[in-house]
Amino acid sequence: MDEQLIDRIYESSLVPELWPAVLEDLSRLSEAIGGSLFITRADVLTWTASPAVRDRAAQIVKEGLYWRGQFVTRALNARYPGFMTDLDLFTPEEIDEEPIYRDFWRPLGIGFAVGTCIPLPTDESVNILMSRLATRGPIERAIVQRLDQLRPHLARSVLLSARLQLERAQAASATLAALGLPALVLGEQGKVLAANRLIEGLTSLLQWRAHDRVALQDKAADQLLREAIASINENEEGDHPRVRSFPVRDTGTDAKRVAHVIPVRLSARDIFVHCSAVLVLTPVSLPQAPPIELVQSLFDLTPAEARVARNLAAGKTVEDMASDGGLSPNTIRSQVRGVLTKTGCSRQAEVIALLTGLAGPPLSRAF
User: With contact defined as beta carbons under 8 Å apart, do 334 and 325 qualify?
Assistant: First the structure.
């Protein structure tokens, strides 16, 4: 068994960018043209693939080919803890009628496949698939046996990745609680992945629903929350989803808070267990600048951009920051543009309003 491959499999649980290379190794072992990994629930949530089949995997997802026919459904329903070939799931005659073979793979010269399904504790499934040219012939049992030797390592890696991401989500909400901010971490489709003790106590603001969903008691604000989550999920790769802030009325006291729906961006996201956004509820209070670490981590800012953002919240001008840091105003303006892009704001005033809202009430100190 390839010990280096096993090491890379486990390393991928911490560095998801390594999965395409692992899939390439698995495809070579399978004598296939490439490998793909899909994260699914009711739909394909996210995916990755080895370079040779990346465009084809993207087309499968984009055109809805993944769920067409019985290929994936039979593989999931089999609940088999190992790798299966297409001939384990279908007769040759049935394969000829499967849409993904008939309409997509066969015209490209692809004739056979081998894969496995790994359930996650987050109600998702990881599906790994290698496809082979028709001229090469069906997947041999000896290759399936070699893949089965690797499957326990693959399963542990994806489960570890899922667990680590959940722990990171919980750590993020706990950090916000330490700063005095009621917050929860949302997955795609609005599922709550983690919530801190401060927000759990706001029963006059929040209504907890089945399947780890949450709603705001203020109906108008809840509609804005749904729209904000939908706008984040609709953003295509490369776009910068906007932070959405809106007032929320406390139905118990009629006091008001401000809700901030903050997209989780770039390196803060992972192929497993997508954290889509953080919902922060702050009281209406006097402005103050939030901690620089919070600003940097929420928006994936560089250290320089984080300092600029915090200085904007503190009321400093571009000229003030240039003078304080011994930099040119043009350098500061460039950093301001980076802050605007990453926070989803179009004007400096919007950044200031957002960050002063995130600051929340002053923290009491225990001596």
Answer: no
Can you give the pLDDT at residue 361?
46
φ/ψ of 276, rounded to 5, equals -85, -40
For position 310, what pLDDT does the model report? Answer: 84
| Cβ pair 220, 256 in contact under 8 A | no
**Cβ-based burial of 310 (10 A; exposed 0-12, middle 13-18, buried ≥19):** buried
Q: Which residue has the tokens 């993020």?
A: 172
Helix/strand/coil for 283: strand
Beta bridge partners of 184: 195, 279
Phi, psi of 125 (to 5 degrees): -130, 135
Query: From start to end of 221-255, where are the E strands?
Result: 244-249
Q: Which two tokens stand for residue 287?
A: 């402005």
Tens-place pLDDT, residues 256-294: 777 888 777 644 456 666 677 888 887 765 455 666 656
Q: Which of 132, 152, 140 is nearest to 28 (CA)?
A: 132
User: Which span out of 212-221, 240-249, 335-344 was modeled with the highest average pLDDT?
Assistant: 212-221
Name every residue whose Cβ is closer than 8 Å to that of residue 309 and which is 6 or more positions away in sequence.
295, 299, 301, 339, 343, 351, 355
Contact 75, 117 (CB under 8 A): yes
Phi/psi for 225 (5° steps) reads -65, -45
Rounded to whole angstroms, how far apart are CA atoms 333 and 228? 28
**Token digits of residue 234:** 């609709």
